[in-house]
Amino acid sequence: MAVATALPLQQFIASLDDTCLPKILQVCSGVYFQGSVYEISGSEVSFSTGDLIKVIGLELLSVCCEDLSNNDKFELPINHTGLFKVVPDEMPFSTVEEMMSMRPVGLESCLPFTFTSRSKMTFDNVTLGAGKAITVLSIEQREDEEDRVRCHVQGQQEVSAEVLIPLSTRGDFVECESKECYTLQEIMSSPGLRSRRFRFENTTKCQRPLVLSPIHQVNALMNLRKNILKFPSSLEVDVVDVTELCQDVKFVTPLSLPEVISQPDESFPAVVNVLEGPDSRSPFKCSWLPELSKRSQLVFHRRGTSAMILLSSLKSRKAQQYFLVSHQYGGRFRRRPREFNSVYELYVASMQAPGLKVSVTRNCEEVEEEGLPGLSVGDQLEVVRCERMELPCESPTAQRQSVEALLCHHLPEPDDGDDDDDEEEVKQDEERQEVLLPLYMPGHFCEVLKDKKKYRLRDLGKDFSLPLDVKVVSRDPDVESDPLAGFACLRIEAAMLEPVIQTSFPYRSDRCFEIPTRWLSMSVAFTTDPLPWPSGEPPECHLDRVTEVTDTFFYEFRKQESSDEAPPPRPPKRNLSSLASCKKSSSKASKKTSKHRTDKNAPTKKLADLTLNSKKRPPAPPPPAILEDEPPPIVPRKSSGANKTSGKALPNTYVKMEEPKKKAPLCEAEADEDSEHDYETVDETLLTMMKAAQENVMFY
Fold first, then answer.
1. How far is CA 594 from each of CA 253, 583, 671, 672, rounded to the nearest angstrom?
2. Burial degree of 678 (CB within 10 A; 0-12, 13-18, 19+)
3. In whole angstroms, what separates CA 230 from the centre of its chain?
4. Dihedral class, residue 259 (left if φ above 0, else alpha if ψ from -120 to 50, else beta)
5. Which of 24, 373, 457, 673 is most buried when burial is the number of CB atoms within 10 A of its CB?
6. Contacts of 376 (CB under 8 A, 6+ apart)
7. Quick one: average pLDDT of 569-597?
8. Taking 90 as the threshold, does the pLDDT of residue 87 lie above it?
9. Which residues of 135-148 are buried (b: 16+ CB within 10 A; e: fewer)?
């Protein structure tokens, strides 16, 4: 087999047209920059020796002009408006047919043109001398006869004649310079003109002969390249045509999961190769994820859209967990009361489900200036509607402020008696108190729920608005280890329709799982490998209905599904002077309460001063009981250290001092800043105990 000749890429592409595509080329050699990487219009193209390129399309971009006198090159766009003239070849043509083949095909301007013959010729009793100008008018084709060209010859004394010259006529024919001009588009569309030399019609530009070469944008495929590769034919690469040798070569095209979804239904089921596995920081926490590694195989059963529910566990000591649950989940749920941490959350929930009833779980102090009512634990409220309320005026001249508030009915406590008369119910309705809760008011509420019915997951999404708190009361029997059954409470966050691919592994084709294509990034390639089951007998698939996801999935889902809802309202701005007056009034009230608390807390405060945390030195403990029969021994004092305090103590000795020269200061009680008097209140019993301790201090 003959070895194909390597050609420059530009020269080879210039010889092609759309009728001979596709072509398979092999890179032989070339100039490579920085590891054979070309930067072309922001896209990176890399070629290495031995790479196979399948050319599937050509698009003319520009024309390369080469000056033959100095080999300078420059490019002109294909829509360049300048005109060009043909520079006659210095080498003569051997036949008329060869000369005519160099003319452009399909152009009205190709005729007439003029040439001369270096030898004398005779046709139909017409003799043409050497060097005589002959103008070709047209080409005449007749059946069973040789094609001829009709030519016009100008004789002496303005005598002219027409002669028919066969195309096979031999001689030395030289083309004369023509006055005809061509555009770049016309030149590039004719293979005959592309091999000629040209010069600009405008003599001020350049008079030197130019060789014009087309530069195409090559559309090609390469193995393991995801998209169609586009690069110019001017790359300095040598290639060889290996189309005949590589008829059976298949170019693998990697596909992302969204691209797999767009494939026709006839493509499924199929065996695919994993070319690039998912990222290590995948949003899924499931058993099948680690097996989606590179070079592994999967079976894509079908594509479609699956209805899913996003569940989350409530915050506790353990980390919060999230699950994607299919609508086909067979377990049963029971509703759980929801908890709300602000009035605004109550408002949002009441808009979704009118008639909401809640119970207060924490006391709320009344703040009259802010319009906040007082609530006690156990109070039951029924949300009615949202309206505006006016806040109390700071001063008689101040302008009233109005804020949005939630109107609620304060429900009476249920009566323990057995009287169920209708009159009592009417009286209870009349006794309902109206409470206005500003939307910016914090609070702690729990939903009053009396629904004990069991629901399927699909029914909860239809009958109730989300979010919704539920608990699994009966697990799905088709799930081997149901992770939802171990939670005391689960919150249904949202319902979604996700494009999925039902997938399995070849060695376990009956255990399927759904891959949400929006949330998993990986690339695969379809293969022609046989399916892992007998032809026409697909297995009955058991689908995994619960998939655990990470908190990243939850936050990204919230980010994508977030709407332009207004944020919760802020409390209105209050005047600083009014706030100061409020503080004074509250401080006075606190002083009054502190008066009554001072007497009760005085002994406790004194005892607190006796601890190690006090800055003052606590008094010594009282001495042990001394018997009257045996007085304690008295240690004589040293004369030199009578007035000094010794740093060392003598063991098991003490002395009883009847009258200390310098009494220690009494333990001072800290003044209460909130009290209206500044004198001390000291318990008499404590003073007696302290005095006895000072008189009986021991020295060790």
1. 82, 16, 12, 8
2. exposed
3. 28
4. alpha
5. 457
6. 360, 363
7. 51
8. no
9. bbeeeeeeeeeeeb
Query: Coil, strand, or helix at residue 690?
Result: helix
Distance (Å, rounded) from C-alpha 168 to C-alpha 139? 13
CA distance 435 to 412: 13
How confident is the model over 658-686, as pLDDT tens digits? 554 444 444 444 444 444 444 455 566 77
Local confidence band at 145 (pLDDT 50, 70, 90 cut-offs): confident
Three-class DSSP category at 408: strand
CB 399 within 8 Å of CB 391: no
What are the beta bridge partners of residue 284?
549
Beta bridge partners of 177: none
Give me the mean pLDDT over the 279-299 stretch.
88
Confidence check: pLDDT of 646 > 60: no
Do 195 and 50 contact (CB within 8 A), yes or no? no
Give 6's pLDDT tier (boundaries 50, 70, 90).
Answer: confident
Structure tokens given for 266:
């006839």
Closest alpha carbon to 389 in 371, 379, 402: 402
431 closest CA partner among 418, 444, 413, 445:
413
Tokens of 607: 């005892």
- pTM of the model as a whole: 0.54
Three-class SS state of 693: helix
CB 369 within 8 A of CB 392: yes
Phi (first) and psi of residue 661, to 5 degrees? -65, -40
Element (H, E) at 214: strand 210-221
Asked if 276 and 523 count as a contact pair (C-beta separation under 8 A), the reply is: yes
CB 307 within 8 A of CB 497: yes
At residue 421, what is the residue type? D
Segment 112-137, tens digit of pLDDT:
778 888 888 887 777 788 888 888 88
Residue bearing the bigger pLDDT, 380 or 575: 380
Sorted by sequence, the CB contacts under 8 Å of residue 327 that are 6+ apart come out as 306, 307, 308, 309, 457, 458, 461
The answer to whether 117 and 151 have CB atoms below 8 angstroms apart is no
Query: Which tokens hold the place of 165?
Result: 């010259």
CB atoms within 10 A of CB 672: 17
The DSSP bridge pattern shows strands 52-67 and 210-221 to be antiparallel
Q: What is the DSSP track for 264-302?
A: -GGG-SEEEEEEEPPPTT-SEE-TTGGG--TT-EEEEEE
Tens digits of residue pLDDT in 18-41: 788 889 999 987 544 444 445 555
Biggest CA-to-CA distance, the chain: 179
User: Using CA atoms, how far apart are residues 136 and 165, in angstroms rounded to an integer?
Assistant: 9
- The pair of structure tokens assigned to 616 is 């003052």
Q: Is 333 helix (H, G, I), strand (E, B) or coil?
A: strand
Task: Name the 3-class secondary structure at 486.
Answer: helix
For the chain, how are helix, strand and coil distributed in percent, rounded to 5? 20, 35, 50
In sequence order, the 6+-apart residues with CB closer than 8 A to the CB of 305 are: 497, 498, 499, 500
Q: What whole-number distance in Å separates Cα of residue 334 and Cα of residue 454?
A: 5
Residue located via tokens 């799982």: 513
What distances in angstroms separate CA 367 from CA 303, 569, 583, one per listed residue?
60, 18, 12
Q: Can you tell me the distance from the alpha carbon of 422 to that of 140, in angstroms, rounded to the nearest whole number?
A: 116
Tokens 């009955």 locate to 540
- 168 within 8 A of 97, measured Cβ to Cβ: yes
**Is the pLDDT at 598 greater than 70, yes or no?**
no
Indicate whether 299 pLDDT > 90: yes
